[in-house]
Amino acid sequence: MKKVLVLGSGMVAKPFVDEMLEQGHAVTCIDMDEARAKELVGKHPKGKAVGLEIAKGEKLDAYIEAHDLVCSLLPPPFHPKIAKRCLNFKTNLVTTSYLSDDMKALHKDAKKAGLIFLNETGLDPGLDHMAAMDLKGDVEEKGGTVVGFQSHCGGFPAPSAANNPIRYKFSWNPSGVLGALQRESSFMVKEKVYEIPGEGMLSRSEPIYIPGEGIFETTPNGNGLFYAAKYGLKDCKTIRRGTLRYPGWARFWTFALKMGWLDRTETVEVKKATPIQILNRLCPWSDKRDFIEFVFHKSPKQASHILEVCHSLGFFDDKLTGTFSAFDIFLNQTQKYWVYGAKEVDKVILYNHFEVAVKGQHQTWTSVLAMEGDPKGDSAMSRLVGLPCAIAGLKILDGTIKVKGVHIPLQEEIFRPILKGLKAKGIVFDKRSDTK
Q1: Domain range enclosing 299
Q2: Cα gap 238→241, rounded to integer Å
Q3: What is the pLDDT at residue 176?
Q4: Rounded to an integer, what distance in angstroms lies between the CA atom of residue 31 and that of residue 161?
Q5: For a 10 Å CB count at each end of the chain, is N or C smaller?
Q6: What is the pTM of this model?
């Protein structure tokens, strides 16, 4: 039996904790909200919940020292600080977040200490890398060369639960979802590279057909060229990574960004004011029209959709008191209204699409992972973030993953055991190849 420390008890923590307990390890969950941590471990004899402000590092040190593995599910800025404490006490670390420069800088120290700090072990980032590397290996076994690479991933309500105007509900950190709407990105089409600033990302939304799943829209997701290079896809003419949503997502948020509705810099204090009234103070309309007329004047083709979303978020009726930025208004209202009902479930799709040259032929190779949540159990998002991370942690604890230093799951020694562990739990990719 090993001892595993889990920091944070958010929306994707439960499958990680359940898997560790199921495999016989002792788990300590630490969160500012002790009640949330207690919900994760329940009454399991090997589970322990602790209420603690994690920023108070000196109190955290004793817990890190007493455990064999730390899983940090905290916001990304915490990870390097946690990693440095893990160095001090010779404790391995796993996270599901993007690898930061600050974390990369710890590679030599972690390797020297005989530790692994494994990042990007969730869904996206995480399974997207593993699926791409797995499919690339299949292509190379057949003597093929990847000449085009696309990877698209998203989590959203299953069709039966997509019952609000924007067809979206939160299955992971709401602040992260809204913050990603202005993320810089890059991609390549027919050898032409596009560098897209954060404010222009949504304007590059495109429809996409995913066989067996339907039609969605995809927006650029981060630096696609960076990951293609990491995957060793040096012969690609087209490289795209995208975030999947139902059609209509980008239309609304493009308007919201133009209006300044996701700005965090200016705040206003209000008492019993509607969200629309608060937004008008923070981002005043440029004329004397009422809001509905203004939206129609500003975006006549999209006005109906924009107003439906605003109505569904209580913008005209709810009364708020406090200090808010425009971003805070949206965060507050979406967390209130974009939530799953008791019997509603989410859905996750991860789609990889390779254009392949094989012996003079052009082929299309794809892999699709599609999963719906369990109405009586975990969401699809939490399973596909928490379980890969848990299996990675288990493989570190049992010595299957031996590599040391700071890594993401690109090496076969890392991603093969994780994919094998997921397959044992029924989580598999549907892989196909078609000759054109």
Answers
A1: 263-337
A2: 10
A3: 84
A4: 30
A5: C
A6: 0.92
